[in-house]
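Hi again,

Forgot to attach this to my earlier email, sorry! This is the prediction with dihydroflavine-adenine dinucleotide bound. I've pasted everything inline since the attachment limit keeps bouncing my files.
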Amino acid sequence: MSLLHKTVLGLMPAVPRPLVRRLAGRYIAGETLDDLIRVAVDLHRQGYLTTVDVLGENSTTEEAAASARDEYIRAVERLSEAGLASQVSVKLTLLGLRFREDLARDLLETIVIHGESRGISVCIDMEDSSTTDAILRIFRAMRREHATVSVAIQAYLKRSRADVESLLPLEPAVRVCKGIYSEPPEIAYQDRSSIRRSYISLVKLLFEGGGFPAMATHDPQLLASCLRLARDLGKGPREYEVQMLLGVGERLRPRVLATGAPLRLYCPYGPDWYAYSVRRLKENPRMVGYIVKGVLSGSPFRRGHMA
Ligand code: FDA
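Structure tokens for the complex follow:
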């Protein structure tokens, strides 16, 4: 990342919250469950699958963690009532992982069991590297009992190959993503080509080891390599899926659907949208241009400025 890029993105905390909300609107399915259901029904009608994320992370009390569990239960019920064979994506720190691992595991299990009887699967999001061991511990325990649970793995982490190898006996479904948190070079690849290489090798490992890779990326070159790999290994569209974030990579979507691959869209919703929105805005390659142009014109964030 260039110095200019870093400097401009460093200005993000100074951007007023209402502007962040407006700029990040495209990435979020809404603030209420009703908003989410409307978006999800529409996406399923268009031929997509969905994974639904209740926005928020890092609960600091048991009450907050239990309340997040309750919101997931409501989401599972509404998705099932709407007849959507959807998935929910769960951040274990929202369920209390940072202060009580057993609490996070128990709350997750309630969601998994609730989903199991209603045709809704559960994917555990991967968070910053201080949580990787605990997340994988919980995933392993859960996967032994529940086939409907999957986990995300980050290609930028140097440990991920060994992690995936150790998970293969569980024949896991794994969402492979590049990784979004800022991690040091001792533990994480920093350059684009190493991350891509690691990503492809994880997908290959999953294919060859009896796992189910969910390729979560909007990187056209990387996605083409993964789909080529699937074809070369004789893997059909029931043996993998592609995943993308709501509001990102729209132009790639028809190309993916045309290959016959299922495409699942990650749909976050809820009032706690700030941290997620900032992560998405920082990843938007056009964001720096918007900010610089806005500053030069004396009106940093005019309405309608975003593509
Ligand atoms: P890259 O960042 O290179 O983006 C490729 C292209 O996509 C860009 O050139 C641009 O055109 C477009 N693009 C990407 N982000 C954009 C944005 N915000 N706005 C506009 N355009 C954008 N991470 C994690 O650590 N733990 C997790 O559990 C998950 N879960 C997850 C689920 C799903 C379904 C996806 C798609 C991604 C995640 N991630 C994640 C995030 C992931 O690690 C990664 O940060 C982003 O997907 C961006 O990486 P890409 O592979 O898309 O490549």
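The pocket of dihydroflavine-adenine dinucleotide is lined by residues 125-126, 152, 154, 175, 177-181, 216-219, 243-245, 248-249, 266, 280, 283-285 (CB under 6 Å). The longest helix spans residues 62-81.

That should be everything now.

G.
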